[in-house]
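Crash report, auto-generated. Payload:
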Amino acid sequence: MAVFENLYARKIYEIVSPVLGDLMTKGALRSQCKKIGISEESIEYKHLNLLSENIGKAMILFIGSENARLIVNKIKSI
Amino acid sequence: MDKIKRFWLASGSIILLNVIGYLTLKGDALLYFSDLLPIICSFIAILGLVQLLKSFKEFDLTKAVWLLILVGLVFNFLAEGTYSFFEIVLKKDMNNLFPSPADYFWFSAYIFFFFSLFLMLSSYIRTGLPLGKIRSYFMLVIVLACIIIVIINFLLVPIIEDTETSVLTKIASIFYPVADILIASLAVILMYISNQFDNKLISMPWKVMAFGFICFTISDLIYSYLSWIDKYGSGNFIDIGWNLGYLLLGVSGLYQLKLMKSIQ
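Recovered output after restart:
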């Protein structure tokens, strides 16, 4: 279960976890936030674009670019 | 019944048929059966992967990974066909024809499988997703080291030291175990990584594929040994490992297809 206080982290978790599962979604969020120099609890609206693109790139390997783009668009539309 | 269930059912029936055939058939019937069944299994695997690749609308990393597996399978299919042609049509004793033209197709298949698994693993590492516990990798290294030591001592050293074996045969005999260890190591790591996913839909293609490669590896290692001591012949039960390996690769493609359709 997601235990994020941050609204955006919680929303991203809700979108990604049905695909990647709990552990991997948390891992993806942690690593992608780290890449852009923030933590999961400090995600702001301005980070969503870059964050979603990076999460999408991480998901391509499993679900292909077309499906990854669907997830990216869902995150962008939060 | 969905496509995957039908595929599992068909695969189970083929393996059962394989066992019954090997237990009951003799002579030429056994030769034809043991030579033709791998052709059928590899062809079924190709069909599974073609179905998956047809569903991709773009050429991306995922497609590249699966395409490499498909090319490897096509080489395996050609190898099985060539092997059967030499043994059934040309009546060659395949134990005396090693490496045979079929082996060159098998060697090529390894290259594609290796690049596919390597691409998968390296791409996964770049995603930044969790790799798992260091302790597990440490255990894996220890187990692999033990297996490698056993293979070197009981298979590679005797082959290298055998004065009756030609250099080409030695190279071919050594290629299989070395390539198998490489492929199996990558497959086991992928299997471990995929175990971390809670979502079975994501983990199944990787798990099933890794298990398929492990089946190949086990059969190949036993084959290398049996072939070197001239004990491999038609109807040997190690063939089941290859046939099952092909079918598992085919079903892994169908699991990937199911995963991709589940998101659309």
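Post-recovery validation: Chain A has one domain: 7-76.
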